[in-house]
């Protein structure tokens, strides 16, 4: 279950805009207009994620400067009560690369696709998280709040 949750949250690291319609919105930006990554489009299927089904995300964005490294501060909770994950990770770690793409990131267009199968054993409930990405100089790359019900 933790691998599933971290996969969804790490994919979320690059999202900078709200997506989906009001009742299906699972991502919300907590960043500013000064963030390094600007998202042009995001396609997420299905929204919200479904157990036993493929979760796919396609991201199209633009980095306004090179990012050589940094940190990913991630907090994940289950049913707003149990903290599942609360750590700061290297932005360019092998785990992050597998999910968000090759680091370092160069100024210019950014395209990335990722697919995950959500385990049927994942507990039903509300998953939430906060992700803050910063570069080596502590500049905000993006900040995201995540929340969805898994049934």
Automatic annotation (TrEMBL):
| Gene3D superfamilies from the UniProt entry | 2.60.40.770
Q: Could you tell me which SUPFAM superfamilies the record lists for this protein?
A: E set domains (SSF81296)
InterPro entries on file = Ig_E-set (IPR014756), ML_dom (IPR003172), NPC2-like (IPR039670)
Q: Which UniProt keywords apply?
A: Lipid transport, Signal, Transport
Top-level taxon: Eukaryota
Could you cite one Gene Ontology molecular function of this protein? sterol binding
Set out the biological process GO terms recorded for this chain's protein. Answer: sterol transport
**Sequence ranges assigned to domain MD-2-related lipid-recognition in this UniProt record:** 27-148
Kindly indicate whether the keyword RNA-binding belongs to this entry. no
Known SMART domains for this protein? ML (SM00737)
Q: Which residues form the signal peptide?
A: 1-20
Subunit and interaction comment: Monomer.
* Functional note: Catalyzes the intermembrane transfer of phosphatidylglycerol and phosphatidylinositol.
The UniProt family comment states:
Belongs to the NPC2 family.
Q: What is this protein called?
A: MD-2-related lipid-recognition domain-containing protein
* Source organism of this protein record: Dictyostelium firmibasis
